[in-house]
Write a structure and sequence with these properties.
The complex is a heterodimer of chains A (135) and B (212). By secondary structure, chain A is α+β, with helices and mostly antiparallel strands. Chain A contains four helices and seven strands, in the order βααβαβαββββ. Chain A has a single domain (3-105), classed as 2-Layer Sandwich (Translation Initiation Factor IF3). In chain A, the strands form two sheets. In chain A, strands 1-2-4-3 form a four-stranded mixed β-sheet. Chain A has a three-stranded antiparallel β-sheet with strand order 5-6-7, with no helix packed on it. Mean pLDDT of chain A is 84; it is low at 123-130. Mean pLDDT of chain B is 90; it is low at 13-21. The chains are: A alpha+beta (135), B alpha/beta (212).
């Protein structure tokens, strides 16, 4: 069974960067796939990778990470203005961040209209992996 | 954090007191097995007559930062460019020692390699702030839209570090430089084969433009 945990923007907005990252990583280490409203900054993404590396061990192999964010180039000026205004008032809630444990999520592929998340299925007793696609 | 902020401001003003060096520090960054060390070796062989890094088909062969000081290259006009070449461990979000076992390492070697590789990734990220310019080395036969690629390039952009993308392995049938250009339209992309030296002259010209 694959468990998704939604993390709303309101749960993250008041946290400092290290606490945000720790919170996300703790959920992933419980073998849940995080779906976070909004996205981390680029520096936070790098910090997330650093912290993930420091936590890798026999039980934790790392993460699969994907960020879906509307492309600014494809937005018309009115949309850009609206988004800038919304960001100013409510924070940058645009986009989704998906983080899954590497022991469960094999890869996440982004296409313009869909996200494909390939999971690993552990068969009884042995370590043979089967691919399963969640769209 | 404060140092990084000030560095960005001084960079914009073309003055950087943190950066009083006789030549630039040029980093090779990218995901594992993109060909960073092969490119480092190609540059060093072409201009110094010796290699600087070991390469392997098993990912995470480079697990420590490797630096070659005083690499001087010349362009067609005879202009010289001197830099320290920094070959970094590949940046990844996951490292599983069992993958190394599948490639033929024994369990002890695989676990050791995995442990060293995790430290290597951390070092690569920590060294980002010290770079003056970066070549992001990507395997042109793979999907460029991976989050690791986006995170690396995004972090370089956030630090105002000039970037050139080397779309490596164009000798492979699946290689597609145009896909990489489409993925990162705001950056210079040069297709090359570091292994066979294909298009390397064009790469050196782009390197001059990047650093100057």
């Amino acid at each position: 069974m694959v468990t998704f945990q939604f993390v709303p923007y309101s749960e993250m907005e008041h946290l400092a960067s290290p606490k945000r990252i720790t919170k996300l990583l703790n959920v992933v280490k419980e073998n849940h796939i995080v779906i976070m409203e909004g996205r981390l900054t680029k520096e936070e993404e790098a910090d997330l990778i650093e912290m993930t590396m420091s936590e890798i061990g026999p039980k934790f192999k790392g993460i699969e990470l994907s960020v879906i964010y509307p492309e600014k180039n494809k937005q018309d000026p009115m949309q850009k203005l609206k988004n800038a205004f919304t960001n100013m008032l409510l924070g940058d809630r645009l986009g989704l961040t998906i983080i899954g444990p590497a022991s469960i999520v094999k890869k996440i592929e982004k296409n313009p209209n869909k996200i494909e998340l390939f999971t690993k299925e552990m068969s009884y007793g042995n370590q043979r992996n089967k691919n399963k696609k969640i769209t | 954090m404060v140092k990084s902020f000030l560095k960005n401001i001084f960079k914009k003003l073309s003055f950087n007191p943190f950066n009083r060096k006789s030549h630039v520090k040029l980093g090779l960054y990218g995901p594992p097995n993109g060909g960073k060390s092969t490119l480092a070796n190609r540059i060093c062989l072409d201009w110094l007559g010796q290699e600087m890094s070991t390469v392997s088909h098993i990912a995470h062969e480079t697990r420590e930062i490797v630096i070659k000081e005083q690499v001087t290259i010349k362009n067609k006009k005879g202009k010289e460019l001197t830099f320290s070449l920094v070959d970094t461990p590949g940046i990844a979000t996951k490292i599983d020692y069992e993958e190394f076992i599948k490639k033929g390492l024994n369990k002890t070697e695989a676990k050791k390699r995995a442990k060293e590789a995790t430290k290597g990734v951390i070092d690569s990220i920590k060294w980002l702030d010290t770079m003056d310019a970066v070549i992001v080395v990507l395997d042109a036969s793979l999907d460029p839209y991976s989050q690791v690629n986006i995170t690396i390039i995004g972090n370089l952009q956030a630090r105002n570090i000039p970037v050139l993308i080397a779309a490596n392995k164009v000798d492979l049938r699946k290689a597609n430089v145009e896909v990489i250009k489409a993925a990162f339209p705001q950056y210079g992309v040069t297709g090359l084969s570091a292994k066979y030296g294909k298009n390397i002259e064009d790469f050196y010209e782009q390197l001059f433009k990047l650093v100057n």
